[in-house]
């Protein structure tokens, strides 16, 4: 009997969706256009850069038919700048996500061209964590200093997850958490923790309410809950 899955997407499912992001490749061989369900891919001619889906870029990289150009935000100086923004105590919010293109009112974060070579260098896209891990594993030779990039990615993930956990402190006071700029995998990984905190606060509030009702009932039984009208009648 299969166990019920938790609500929401699992990390492998989030990574699968990430593979539909567009990335920039530098082809080593000529490749004619492919007709896919999502559309037609461009013709690949060395050494002209082209944007193709990540899953196709990974396949060509594995076959040594293309190199993958890391997006600008995945470079060392960009990651360091974003990390400095995250650890700055004067900036409690997360680093801002990429801005949608002009005139694209229905465009949402997962469908922006935020992983190609012309992406903004100072903004983390929606799939930044899973995309970075995939590229670091599949194309480490396409990075200038892959070890430093890995360290910055790890530090950035830890800082942002700590910020998410710290944000749950306002829930006890009836506040809310702003998730502007939080990535897909971060939401997936923190969903269980935040849901547990909310459920715990709900149980605490319910027990407090029940205790208050029990105390009111006990006071009424002992005569401590008499109203002012009852006191006036007793005096008459």
TrEMBL record:
InterPro entries: GINS_A (IPR021151), GINS_bundle-like_dom_sf (IPR036224), GINS_Psf2 (IPR007257), PSF2_N (IPR056784)
Pfam families linked to this entry: PSF2_N, Sld5
GO terms under cellular component: GINS complex
Subunit structure: Component of the GINS complex.
Keyword Hydrolase: no
Highest rank taxon of the organism: Eukaryota
Keyword Nucleus set for record: yes
The name this protein goes by in its record: DNA replication complex GINS protein PSF2
Basic and acidic residues biased stretches: 209-222
Residue ranges constituting the DNA replication complex GINS protein PSF2 N-terminal domain according to the UniProt record: 10-68
Lineage start: Eukaryota, Fungi, Dikarya, Ascomycota, Pezizomycotina
Compartments, record wording: Nucleus
Keywords annotated in UniProt: Chromosome partition, DNA replication, Nucleus
Function: The GINS complex plays an essential role in the initiation of DNA replication. Has a role in chromosome segregation.
A single BP term in Gene Ontology: DNA replication
Similarity-based family: Belongs to the GINS2/PSF2 family.
Broad class of where this protein is predominantly found: nucleus
Location of the region described as Disordered in the Swiss-Prot/TrEMBL record: 205-236
């Amino acid at each position: 009997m299969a166990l019920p899955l938790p609500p929401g997407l699992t990390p492998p499912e989030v990574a699968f969706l990430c593979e539909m992001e567009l990335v920039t490749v530098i082809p080593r061989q000529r490749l004619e256009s492919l007709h896919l369900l999502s559309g037609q891919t461009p013709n690949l001619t060395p050494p002209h850069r082209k944007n193709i889906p990540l899953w196709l870029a990974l396949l060509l990289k594995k076959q040594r038919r293309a190199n993958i150009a890391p997006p600008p935000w995945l470079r060392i100086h960009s990651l360091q700048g974003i990390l400095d923004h995250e650890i700055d105590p004067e900036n409690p919010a997360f680093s801002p996500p990429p801005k949608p293109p002009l005139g694209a009112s229905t465009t949402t974060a997962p469908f922006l061209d935020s992983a190609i070579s012309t992406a903004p260098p100072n903004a983390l896209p929606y799939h930044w964590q899973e995309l970075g891990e995939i590229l670091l594993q599949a194309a480490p030779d396409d990075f200038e200093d892959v070890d430093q990039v890995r360290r910055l990615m790890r530090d950035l993930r830890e800082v942002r997850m700590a910020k998410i956990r710290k944000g749950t402190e306002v829930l006890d006071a009836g506040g809310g958490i702003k998730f502007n700029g939080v990535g897909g995998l971060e939401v997936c990984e923190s969903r269980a923790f935040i849901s547990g905190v909310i459920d715990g606060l709900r149980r605490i509030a319910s027990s407090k309410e029940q205790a208050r009702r029990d105390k009111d009932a006990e006071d009424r039984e002992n005569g401590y809950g008499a109203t002012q009208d009852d006191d006036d009648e007793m005096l008459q």
